Amino acid sequence: MGRGRIADCWSARRGRYRVVYSIHDDAVFVRVLRISHRADAHD
């Protein structure tokens, strides 16, 4: 994940925003950890 990796997390760009999330296959769900404007996403 770009600057400052967060263990077991993924990042996706959606328009002006960056979504940081983790996937839990065992429980079949996705947990959204943060939604930030792309300019502020890695602070």
Ordered list of secondary-structure elements with their pairings:
Layout (H helix, E strand, L loop, with lengths): L9 E5 L2 E8 L4 E9 L6
Antiparallel strand pairs: 1-2, 2-3
Written description of the protein model:
This protein is an all-beta fold and 43 residues long. The chain has one domain (10-40). It contains no helices and three strands. The protein has strands at residues 10-14, 17-24, 29-37.
Strand order of the largest sheet: 1-2-3
N-to-C order of helices and strands: EEE
Structural class: mainly beta
Number of beta strands: 3
Sum this structure up briefly.
The protein is mainly beta and 43 residues long.
Defining traits:
3 strands, mainly beta, three-stranded antiparallel β-sheet, 0% helix, 43 residues
